[in-house]
Structure formats: structure tokens, C-alpha cells
Amino acid sequence: MPRINVLSKQLAELIAAGEVVERPASVVKELLENSIDAGADTVTVEIKNGGISYIRITDNGCGISRDDIRNAFVSHATSKISAADDLNSIMTLGFRGEALASICAVARVEVMTAPADEDIGTRYVIESGEEILCDDAGCPKGTTIIVRELFYKTPARMKFLKKDVTEANAIAGVVDRIALSHPEVSIRFIREGKQVLITSGRGDLHTCIREVFGKEFSETLIPASAETNGVKISGYVSRPVAARPNRNMQFFFINNRLIKTGTGSAALSEAYKNSIMVGKFPSCVLNIEIDPSLVDVNVHPAKTEVRFSDERMIFNAVYYACKNALDSGDTPKQVREIKKDFYKAPEKPAEQLVITQKPAPVKDFWQHIPKAEAPKQTVVTQAPKPAVEVKRVTPPSVVRLSSPDGKPSVKPETTEDILLNSPSKKNEEVKTEVIPAVSVAPVEVRPVQPEIKVEPQIETKTETEAFSEEEFLLIGEAFKTYIICEYRGKMVIIDKHAAHERIIYEKLRKESGERTPQLLLLPVTVTLSKEEYAATIENLELINDSGFEVEDFGNGCVIVRECPMELSADDVEEVISEIAGRFVDKKQDVAFEKMDWIFHSVACRSAIKAGNFTSRLEMERFAKQLLSMPDIRYCPHGRPVLIEMTKRELEKNFGRV
Fold first, then answer.
1. Does residue 381 have a pLDDT over 70?
2. Residues 631, 638: contact at Cβ < 8 Å?
3. pTM metric for this prediction
4. Which residue in 636, 638, 546 sits closest to 583, CA to CA?
5. Residues 99, 20 contacting (CB under 8 angstroms)
6. What is d(CA 69, CA 169) in angstroms, rounded to the nearest whole number?
7. Which residues contact 648 (CB under 8 A, 6 or more apart)?
8. CA distance 558 to 550
9. Contact, 558 vs 536, CB < 8 A?
10. What distance in Å separates the CA atoms of residue 201 and residue 43, rounded to the nearest whole number?
């Protein structure tokens, strides 16, 4: 039978430290909360090597007296509570008395502190829980804590840390959240010797949001407030048009303490129901003020999980605050009034206006005879007429639908049809079938510049040729979503969005690594949470191999200069936000899987949407293209792209057989 051993103090502290100090960001969070609890209104955070080798927190709070400096690093020693009843009225961020003891157990810690009522400060050094030095020091009022060589005594923990840039971004996320929870505190963040954040500390939450996340994000917010049943809600929520593909920009605070609450997220989503698209989520920065006796914050050592005595009360307060904000603040933007005749063209004398009538545009003129195969023809005309230049005109389209090989599958008009339908060739006697230009006398015909070429038809067996033109009949479209046609004795119903999405997805996969992206006229700046930002920076090479050109723009932002040809510039920001959120949620996916769902996102945004108008020509071309690709029967999300029904199945439903 194994014996029960009493662990040494040092080993017990190392085990306890694992609950509080998981990574450098945990250290920064605990020390920042201590500074705010000490009454500081100015705090500076400085890190090096992602906080692994160096962390310094400086504040102008009340400081620590010489008599208490040793007790501060003893486990379960705190100034926040003194009796069991105090747990029911906790208003401070820290109260467990574990942070400093856990930090000094796994790092080298140096403290310089000076209370306002003491003339001489104190310098205290402790390593692995053992005191090294306690002496007088000259230092400003407040406290400065320096943490060096984190986990130097526990190399097993060290190897589980991420790259320096990842750990630094995690710290930046902690600093952002604490800055939002206490806008009255000026927080300065220095990273590798460079200042990346400073808040004014004026107490204005909207100003603080702008300083943390930037102007573009702050302008999408509207104020939200409500007070019901003793619960007060204050903060900001985003407009429905600024909805994001994930919940990473939702920040909830309980009595100015950052928390994770499923109740608040559910109430927020319910308030935005019927205001945003399914699968989109609003952003928010909301503080919940409640009687401390109605919430239990002593659930987890990280103090981010709490329990409410009445979840419905919290749900209702958040719901009504958001609903009131949407009703009063979500108003359409006013269009700037334009002066009358602002765009009026300058008047010209009537005799100076020359009206030039151009030939009618040639419809569906997709193919022409190449120069090498153009035969010499003779034209007999009744009177000399100027040469007619035939230009290639692409028919208007609503969506970008193309055949598998990039060419339309519509049968082009012959040159004879074009010439006979031309306004300048009516009542003209034409004796030839193919002619690129008309001249006065019989001459050798040459194509006009620019040359219009067509690939010669080669008799090869392809999937497109397997399509039977005679067995196809387009019927129409239902609900602007489903294309209905008849093909080979079956009625085929096509979901145009799902089918188009799969076609684009297959095209992106086929051309992976060999694509030519489109250059954006105006680069798009995307604001991300610090976790999304860190994950995106880690996968920049993968994103750029997918047809984008994304660069680090600093301070939680990336800038997009190029995107795939299929993607609209208006969808770039949403796609990048969605990709960044997937990077955070699916960190363990291999590169191939990440590339795959990047293509999913691009294809989904690029495909024609259900409800969009589609011309009959486009429907016919698209249906023919899809039916000639038998391998495409499901969209990237697994939904079917078409449904087939035989004539017998249809007749059975009507009782004809």
C-alpha cells in the first residue's frame, strides 16, 4: 500500500502556481489587477521576449509598507478580505492572496515600493519563494514589480509556451480588456521598447474603445444602457450592419471585472434577432453593475467565470439595454445634400453638338475566325459603303458565371447573322458567310485591329462534350433561388448559390498557388481582437498562398492589399475576420485543412446569393455548365446542389400512374 507523503512547501507552491500562472499573460493580469486595487490611476506595462524574460509593472498606487512586504508573498495573504462574510461583498479585482506567491515560486521577482506616508522606499528581491534581499531604496510613490526568467525552475512548463510574438499578443489582449474595464485608469503598454498603447484615463468609455481598437471600430458602436431589478447595464453595442462572423469582439464586465458569460451572449444575440443575418454576431463592450451578494466570483482561480443567483435577471437587463440601443441609436445615415445642378454639364451651342450613331452591340459574339484561317471572299454591293468594324461585346451579367474551361457554353452567332443584323447592312446584298470587314471592291479581307482570335475546334472527348444540347430545356426559376430545367427525361432543380459556391471552390483548389490576385484600389484595414490578430500573423504565409496579400498593420490590425479575383472588395473585411476567427477556434488543424476552409469562405462570399436576379441567358449557361460536371453534386458545406425527379415520380404524385 503506497504511503501518503506530505509535500514540501516549495513543491506545493509550484503546484498551486500552475492554477494561477499559466503563461506570461496570467502574470500581467494579476499584477495589473493589484495595481488597480491599490488605487493607481496611471499604470505602465513593459515586456520583452513575450514576457518570458522580462515583465515590469509600474503604478502610482498606495504602495506596500516595509512591514507588509514579506507577507505580500506568502500564500493566501491579502489585504482585500479578512473574514468569511467579506466574500459576499467583494468589489476588488483580487482577493485570493495567491498571485504574488505563485509568481515568485516560478520566477525571479524584484519589488520597489514606497507608500505615501513613508520617506524611504523598499527594495525586495525573492526567487523561487526564497527571500534574497530586503533593503532601503529611493523610488517614486507607488509600486514597481519586475518579473524575470519566468518558469526558469520548471523547464517542463517552459516548453509549452508559444512563440514570443504569440505570448506578447496574449499579453496585449489582457491589457486591452483591463483598459476597457477601467477607462478611468491611464494604461501604457510598452512592447520590446516600443509603445503600442496608451489610454487617456479620462473615464470616457467610448474614448477608451477608440484608443484600444481604433477609430473604425468605435464608429460602428452605439450607446446602450438600462436599469432593471437592481441590475444596471452601461456600455456600447455595434450596429447590425457591423456584425462580425464570430463572438471574439464581445466584452462583458461584472462590476468592472472581465468575465465570460453565456447568459450575456445569449441575451445579446436574442436582442439582435431579425436585425442581423444568421451566423453573424454583434460586438459589445458592456459593464454589468450588480449587488456583489448576488454574484459569486470565487469559482475559478482566474476569476473570469462567475455564477449569478438569478440568470434570468441578467438576461433581461442585457436584452432590454440592447433593444433600447437598437431602437434609438440604429438610424440610417443621412445622405449629404448635393447642390442643384452640381453635376450639370456646360452648355454648348446646338450647332457644335455632333451625334454619332454607333452600330448596335453584337450580342453573344464569343468566337471569330483567326487570321490564319480567314478565306479570301468577294463582296458584291450596290453602292460603296464604309467598312464596318465588328467589336467583341460581352453581354451584361449579374453574376460571374463561367464554364469549367473559362469559356461560355452558348452557341455564338455567325458572322453572317451579325452582318445582316447590322443597321448599316440592311437591304444589302451579301454573298458570303464569313467576313470580318466590308470593303468597296473585292479585296483580301484582313481583320481590323485589335485582332480577335478564337481557338480552333479540336475534336477531343471532354466532360463538356458529353453534355447533350438536344436533351436540355430551361424552364425557369423559382423564388429567385432555384433554377428549374428538363434534362434527359428528368426535371432538375438547381440551388444556384450552392452550385455556384462549389464551382468556385473547385476552381480555387485547382489554381491554388498559381493564382493572380486582384489589386485593391483602396487597401482594406481589418481590426481584430488580439487573439485573432496573433493567429492571423502566425498564418500570414498560408493566407497569402490562398490569393490574398495581407500585411501586419500593427496594434491589432492587418491590411489587405490584394484578394482573389472572385471576391468583391466589399467582402474582404468580413472574409478576413471570419478566417481569423477560425484560426483561433481551430488551432490544431493542419495547413491543408486551414487552406481548405479559407477557400470555403472565399467561395461562399463570391457565389451568387439566393434572391439575386439572374437573367435567362445566365441561367441557361449555368445549368448547362453544372450538368456537364457530374462530379459536382454537393456544396463545400455538404448540402446538395441539385435535385432530380423523373417523369414517373412526378406522375405518381399527381396520381397519373
1. no
2. no
3. 0.66
4. 546
5. yes
6. 31
7. 657
8. 7
9. yes
10. 10
First CA to last CA distance, the chain: 80
**Spelled out in words, what is the top-level CATH class assigned to the domain 220-328?**
alpha beta
The residue extents of the domains of the chain are: 9-198, 220-328, 357-458, 476-627
| Angle, in degrees to the nearest 10, between helices 496-510 and 591-606 | 140
Single-letter residue type at 329: G
Residue 647 pLDDT greater than 90, yes or no: no
Measured CA to CA in angstroms, residue 450 lies from 63, 364, 436 at distances of 81, 18, 12
CATH architecture observed for domain 9-198: 2-Layer Sandwich (3.30)
Taking a C-beta distance cutoff of 8 angstroms, is the pair 111, 102 a contact? no
Site of grid cell 486582384: 518
Could you give the 3-state DSSP secondary structure of residue 155?
Answer: helix
Q: Rg (Cα) of the chain, in Å, rounded?
A: 35
Q: According to the model, what pLDDT value does residue 355 have?
A: 45
* Interval 334-361: pLDDT, tens: 433 434 443 344 444 444 444 445 555 5
Percent of the chain at pLDDT > 70 equals 73
pLDDT band at 251 (very low <50, low <70, confident <90, very high): very high
Q: Are 460 and 396 in contact (CB under 8 A)?
A: no
Helix (H) or strand (E) holding 36: helix 24-37
Instruction: Quickly tell me which residue has 468577294 as its cell.
Output: 378
- What's the pLDDT score for residue 390? 45
8-31 per-position pLDDT tens digit: 666 665 555 556 788 899 999 999
Q: How far apart are CA 18 and CA 23, in angstroms?
A: 9
Query: Domain 476-627, what fold?
Result: Ribosomal Protein S8; Chain: A, domain 1 (3.30.1370)
- Cell numbers linked to 296: 459569486
SS3 244: strand
With cell 448599316, the residue in question is 424
- Give the C-alpha separation, 113 to 63, whole Å: 6
Give tens-digit pLDDT for 479-531: 989 999 999 888 999 999 989 988 888 888 888 767 678 899 999 999 888 88
What is the band of 51 on the pLDDT scale with cuts at 50, 70, 90?
A: very high
